[in-house]
Amino acid sequence: MIYFREQARLDALYRLDLLDTPASESFDRITRLASQIFGLPAAAISLTDRDRQWFKSRVGIDRCSIPRDSAPCSEVVETMQPLVIEGFLASPCYADSPLGQAATRFYAGVPLITSDGYGLGTLCVLGTEPRQVLPSEMSALIDLAAMVMAQIELQHAFGRIDPVSGMPTRSQFRDDLADMARDYPGERRLAVMIDLARDDQISKIARAIGAARIDDLIIEASRSLGAALGPDRTAYHVGPTQFAFLSPPNVDEATYLQLLQSAFISLQAASSVRFVTSIAIGIRPFVLGQIATDDVLRGAASAAQDARRADGSIAVYSPSSDTAHQRQYGLMRDFGVALEEGSQLRLVYQPRIDLLTGFCIGAEALLRWRHPRLGDISPAEFIPIIEQTSLARPTTQWVLDAAMDQLVDWRHAGINITVAVNISAANLGEADLIERIETGLLERKLLPSQLEIEITESAIMDHPYHALSILRDMAAAGICVAIDDFGTGHSSLAYLQRLPAHVVKIDQTFVRNLTEVTGPDFVLLETMIGLAQKLGYRCVAEGVETSEAAAILAQIGCEEAQGFLFAKPIEVDRFARWISKHRARGESKSFTMPSSFRVNKSKETAKHNRFARSAGAARPLHVSVGSIAS
Asked: What is the C-alpha to C-alpha distance for residues 20 and 31, in angstroms, rounded to an integer?
């Protein structure tokens, strides 16, 4: 019975994970107060391990532990009663103990008892002269011991120990690192972050097997990590599937990296879910006292994310990469403010030209952001960030409202064109998206055909069946649907022919370098346009920058084009003037398709090189374009 009681006591002690942890000011404060109350040079918070007394906090004591045998603290734990030794030399049990031999002549200790009734250790005071104890002193010592236990329970209750892994948490890591920075300033260390799996992998495991399997994964990893580090090292559970620990002081980074790579292979091989997860390790070198504790862990986590994007699974902290991540977060935070404030955001419009007539028949609305401190932020930088957050919905709504308001203004000015608005994959999950669009059109007395909704091919293919349902409802409401960046999304032909879209926009990567009617680029482009038109779509070519490209597109039947050849995105206050000038000059600038660009579609030539150049003369092709400088 005594054996099992002792095992249960040790289990309670180990679960608290106090042994061999750095000094903590929250405990040192109590120890100093005990020393002051008794007027004695030494005091300690002593934890009773299997074969030692380890001092979590100590004043006036040089050693961090003493053997448990013949230690008065051990008796306090075993009896669960206070113990006072007024004169060590008169005590038959402790006169020859390590404390007695170290000139200790007085001892008073009270037990540290958990709410479950287990003794963890003692709060004790020690002196070099025999003395008696006043009742008020013992009462104060008992109260201070209760404060120690309250601190222990408080740390454990408020996220200091993870209930699944049994490891100290992020909060404890932060406090321990602050204590180390105070005690060992200037010491070089490596913070190591182990990330067991991506968020989507954890989600899939939980969905397929259940959340309990995630707990099993955590327990399995914590045991493996604890065994690898050994009893003298501390690992922390700092995230749902993230663990962290510190290297020994002043290790060689290259050598330690090799050790981590070997440990990584062992950890991965030991995982029971290694085939459905991917482990990443991030390393953050730092100097104690020279970097904020929060930045140490954040830097290690940043390196772990870099490891996922690299070929290997281990990466060292990169200041430039970390700066980029911080900028992304800053932009995400500031964009929410910009969306509420409104004046930082605006729409510009890039004209779409009918290649047959040369007239502008539409425009694509493009969001622009002028940051009050950073200036103009590229849409290529901030839009992908916004699309991954809850800001995707209000951002799209802001663009829709601004575009529809502009249509009303243009209608009053006699400009009747279609405006295209881009939506993201996240918007397809909004149940009221179509209702909001229809309401906006009705409130402004606009026709559904005046608004075109663009969605990228890749966004559609992320959730094809759901996207198909949404796009069908949109088409049924009379709203024109366009597939943007066509040719880059790897959609199947079987699915493509079912999409209720009206327009496909050929991605600019297929158009920008188009200079002749031969070669694989032209073959691919001509095939894409022909296929889209046979399926009933109207084709718009993006990124048209040369008159040669425009001529080739017109000859192979592409209906519309947009690009710098016609106009860059135009500020709204200049768009009306551009339209007027474009119409006035619509027939004043044209070009003739050179004979070398003639498309030969004879069946015989098609067998070998369907789109080879023709040596004969070609019928001139005229395409009217507006002035780029307008």
From this structure: 17
